[in-house]
Amino acid sequence: MGEKGVFDDILAGSDTFKYYSEGEWKVSSSGKSVPIINPTTRKIQFKVQACTQEEVNKVMESAKSAQKLWAKTPLWKRAELLHKAAAILKDHKKPIADCLVKEIAKAAKDAATEVVRSGDLVSYCAEEGVRVLGEGKFLVSDSFPGNERTKYCLTSKIPLGIVLAIPPFNYPVNLSVSKIAPALIAGNSLVLKPPTQGAVSALHMIHCFHLAGFPKGVISCVTGKGSEIGDFLTKHPGVNCISFTGGDTGIAISKKAGMIPLQMELGGKDACIILEDADLDLASSSIVKGGFSYSGQRCTAVKVVLVMNSIADSLVKKVNEKLGKLTVGPPENDCDITPVVTESSANFIEGLVMDAKNKGATFCQEYKRKDNLIWPLLIDNVKPDMRIAWEEPFGPVLPVIRISSVEEGIRHCNASNFGLQGCIFTKDINKAILISDAMETGTVQINSAPARGPDHFPFQGLKDSGIGSQGVTNSINMMTKIKSTVINLPTPSYTMG
């Protein structure tokens, strides 16, 4: 069977895709679809189903009944199916990567890497789940004062029920599987609501899970307008856990969601603090990679550089030299800088750039934009009254703030309402640890750009950057509850024996 034939079932037309419910690919009764605009051509590339609230209710019903049986499926069998899905995903990386190129303008090589990384994550999660969930705990009562050894407590981890997964546009495959795999290995059923840009890549990925042979109803994927099914899904009484990655919407979801566990990874304004003793070649390379890969559209991108005055000129010069070597153009050509995801995103970035210009910042390159494509731009001498000092551009523009002390850098970092990641460049490990301790961020990288991976590392944000912690093990634990069974024994008779 050729690559194309494998994905024929998910098509409802030449460019329109079905949604996935009860183990089948379906066309919505709404008769409507949602267009997906190619960021490079700015034309409609694909269409997905505009599911109705009634269809969401049916998905929830089947997810609930399927979950009861899935939770009774032996752990090794759940792991086996996940390994199978991972292998199928990697076997079909090309058509999925092609969708990522067309939907979110991700460079072809990075798109293929995302699919392979996703397969690896699913396999790792299957292995880790067998270990984490295969162990219980045994407690005895006489370890607490005043008690005899009359109670044995056995604890194990049980699934929560239905997990609602909402990934973002920038990693629609990888940040879907990072929610799907932990949910499934833990015995939950999973409902995926992919982002509009990235929905078709996610539907292809879901088909790989379908081909692996998961029971009907254990996995579902609904597409549609946020206004029609977004709030309806997040407030649905059938949902027992929400795992969300994205922007401000997450704060609104957390306020509306009921008394259920939330895993939220929201925005970031990841600060890069550069000390006088830093290796400037390493720092400048990390700033270009951290700030400009995937055109800066990453929550863990370097979003503000805080550099000591005495080395600022040298650092800026080195960064500019490296920026001059970046290729700019369409994702099909594997360019370093590709179009940002939507016109509104490009307009927002331009607003931040113009505000900085009007307030006297120094532009290291000429600001250049064509449609959704924005050329890389380093903005020097940024001051705290400029929007770009605080707001998250999600594009290939990076502000530099010159500081006269480390304390000033820490103060700026901590004044942000975000606290996802940060990084420090110095050769003094003692200073690095002390600054890391002082930074109010979920993760601090020493002598490297921020990054989410490896995917088994804990990943979390403070303040408006999120709730809970991700990473394979943390996600598995978060998608389970502790269940205790207590065996009550008669009072011991010390004459026995």
TrEMBL record:
- Organism's domain of life? Eukaryota
Give the family, as the similarity comment puts it. Answer: Belongs to the aldehyde dehydrogenase family.
Give the principal location in a single coarse category: cytoplasm
Q: Name one GO molecular function term.
A: glyceraldehyde-3-phosphate dehydrogenase (NADP+) (non-phosphorylating) activity
Q: Where in the cell is it found?
A: Cytoplasm
Q: InterPro entries given for it?
A: Ald_DH/histidinol_DH, Ald_DH_C, Ald_DH_CS_CYS, Ald_DH_CS_GLU, Ald_DH_N, Aldehyde_DH_dom, ALDH-related_metabolic_enz
Active site feature: E265
What reaction(s) does this enzyme catalyze?
Answer: D-glyceraldehyde 3-phosphate + NADP(+) + H2O = (2R)-3-phosphoglycerate + NADPH + 2 H(+)
Question: What protein name applies here?
Answer: NADP-dependent glyceraldehyde-3-phosphate dehydrogenase
> What PANTHER family does its record include?
ALDEHYDE DEHYDROGENASE, NADP-DEPENDENT GLYCERALDEHYDE-3-PHOSPHATE DEHYDROGENASE
The UniProt record lists the EC number as 1.2.1.9
Positions of the Aldehyde dehydrogenase domain: 27-484
UniProt source species: Helianthus annuus
Q: What is the lineage of its organism?
A: Eukaryota, Viridiplantae, Streptophyta, Embryophyta, Tracheophyta
Which keywords has UniProt assigned to this entry? Cytoplasm, NADP, Oxidoreductase
One cellular component (GO) term of this entry = cytoplasm
Q: Please name the PROSITE patterns in this protein's record.
A: ALDEHYDE_DEHYDR_CYS, ALDEHYDE_DEHYDR_GLU
